[in-house]
Amino acid sequence: MSVQVSYKKQFTFFIILSLIFLGIIEISLHIIEPKCNFVLSEIFSEYDTFKKNELCSAYQSLEYNQNGPISYLVPNQYYNYLNINSDGFRGNEIIDEGKYRIIFLGGSTVFGIVTTSDEITIPTLVEKKLNEKKFNVQVINAGIPSATSVDELYLLENDLLKYNPDLVVMYDGWKDIDKEHELEIYNLSLEITDIASGVNVFFS
Questions:
Q1: Angle formed by the axes of helices 149-158 and 185-195, to 10°?
Q2: Alpha carbon of 178 to those of 147, 166, 172, 203: distances in Å?
Q3: What domains are there in the chain, each with its CATH number?
Q4: Binning pLDDT at 50, 70 and 90, where does residue 163 land?
Q5: In the predicted model, is pLDDT for residue 15 greater than 90?
């Protein structure tokens, strides 16, 4: 009889400890400050610490394939605030609907590294605006965080042309400045003209 009581006490003690442990985890998720500096911006002032941590974790959890010359986003990644489709691009699946197809290339700004939804990235907002004006376009977000113009040229030449884009927009800035010694913009612009015959390329 005393052994049975002992087991019951141990089980009860285990349940209480488990609840305390889970409570500590829950509290820590709400109290510990996020590791991403961008969520400390006033833009996210309405987000509690838990949501900031969740947003931060989503971006830090992104997986990259680094086996080739450039880093690709691993396809089929799904989080609360962003999605990487089966082609490895942010947003919805690419569907061939006969629309005028625009591909946006760039780094974190094009990708939307601080956005809280796929719907408020630059490429998606451009698509919405143009479709509101009855232009019937499809915009693909091929942005990759930390990408440079050279990375994007490689991606365009080796992967993106198979999507038969009508227009390619390359939006670059900080990373090209940061890695200026690695880039030759003049040669890059000539190469783009060579590889993208029949495709309008806007380089900014």
A1: 10
A2: 11, 30, 11, 18
A3: 74-203 (3.40.50.1110)
A4: very high
A5: no
Does the pLDDT at position 16 exceed 50? Answer: yes
Percentage of the chain lying above the pLDDT 70 cut: 73
Q: Is the per-residue pLDDT at 26 higher than 90? A: no
CB 83 within 8 A of CB 90: yes
Residue 159 DSSP code: T
Name the β-bridge partners of 100.
Answer: 137
Give the pairing of strands 83-84 and 100-106.
unpaired
To 5 degrees, how large is the angle CA 158–CA 204–CA 114? 85
> Which residues make beta-bridge pairs with 142?
none
Q: How far from the centroid of its chain's Cα atoms is residue 4's Cα?
A: 55
What distance in Å separates the CA atoms of residue 38 and residue 20, rounded to the nearest whole number?
32
